Amino acid sequence: MKALTMVPAYAIKKIWKRFFSGLKLIAVCLAGIALILLWHENAWGRPTENNEVLEPEVSAETAVLMDGVSRRVLFNKNAHWRRPMASTTKIMTAILAMEKGDLEEVIEVSEKAANTGGSSVWLEAGETKTLEELLYGLMLRSGNDAAVAIAEHIGGSVEEFTSMMTCKAKEIGATNTSFKNPHGLHHEEHYTTAYDMALIAAHAMNHHTFYRISSSPWAVISWSEQEWDRVLYNQNKLLESYRGADGVKTGWTTPAGRCFVGSATRDDYRLIVAVLNAPDMWEDATKLLDYGYEAFQRKKLISQGQVVKTVEVKYSREKQVEVMAQEDVYYPLKPGEKEKIRYLFKLAEPYTAPLKSGEVMGEMKMIMDGEEIDSVALTVTEDVLRAPFYENLLNFILEWV
Fold this sequence. Notes:
Elements: H1 2-5, H2 9-44, E1 62-67, E2 73-77, H3 90-100, E3 106-108, H4 111-114, E4 128-130, H5 131-139, H6 144-155, H7 158-172, H8 194-204, H9 208-214, E5 218-221, E6 230-233, H10 238-241, E7 245-253, E8 257-266, E9 269-276, H11 281-295, E10 297-302, E11 307-314, E12 320-325, E13 329-333, E14 342-347, E15 351-352, E16 360-368, E17 371-380, H12 389-400
Parallel strand pairs: 11-15
Antiparallel strand pairs: 1-2, 1-9, 3-4, 5-6, 7-8, 8-9, 10-13, 11-12, 12-17, 14-16, 16-17
Helix pairs in contact: 3-5, 3-6, 5-6, 6-7
């Protein structure tokens, strides 16, 4: 106690002051670290305890994010609600034009096409254009006049063409879609769903010509009796703002609201996004694509040529032959999902020789959570010759002895 009384009072005050200053500094540092962690958590969208990426909130009334190959739905907001789709209609118009027409065909623009209301590429009655030029006008400038010119050329009439559009949609799997025109101007019986539009766009992006046109930032087409050509700029802003963006189409009418169907591809991993009646459609599309690339990884489930099973063969010396996967199979998965996949073989064993290398023997299905997610054909790895008659006869006798 005597030693303490010898310490000057001003020294004790100084020590306490420094101690509390140190505590304040530590508190400020901890608060700063907490703010940094909170910002990082919100910026990257990983706030859950198990590091699962949270689904984004979007302004769209209906929305879908879909894997472009497997068609797995990665995000769903009212995906099957029927909605008008405005000019995203033109994706189907382009599909039929490419599948039924020739890009070099010369088309004369009718008066009906030239007088179509809404957005246009200023076509004039009697003007001639190649189908390819009309497709650029359709997809980049969203020309309603180009849509009608294409419909009349391919279908003979707008009515017949729109019937073809609906039939093609059902063939693709878009069974909740009805087309009444080739451009998307409002009609009570002209509707689709976000899910259906994603399916249609995924199908379209498999066409090389559609991909080339849809991903073009701009194009030039002729303008009859003018000293200049038409310069068309793509209205898809994601082509400039989003890494990997490569399609597909915007749309707007008052009843439909703002609509967008988009595509992005990174390292062969293509995602399709569809948002209908989306006030913040660019932000919605960006959020959904980011979510797809962050929350899911494209995993290879089976490699082409991978031997997966050995099957029995009758009347051959080998008695057995290996079967292999006919192609690669990829699937978008969240962490931990690959371990859930089970493999189901559909093989009609035993098989009878002779067999040829590459002959399809059956299929292997991939099952996750009780649902089939994909399948692959299984083929013979090598030729299997039939054993001579006497050998087969001897084996038959031995089986019964």
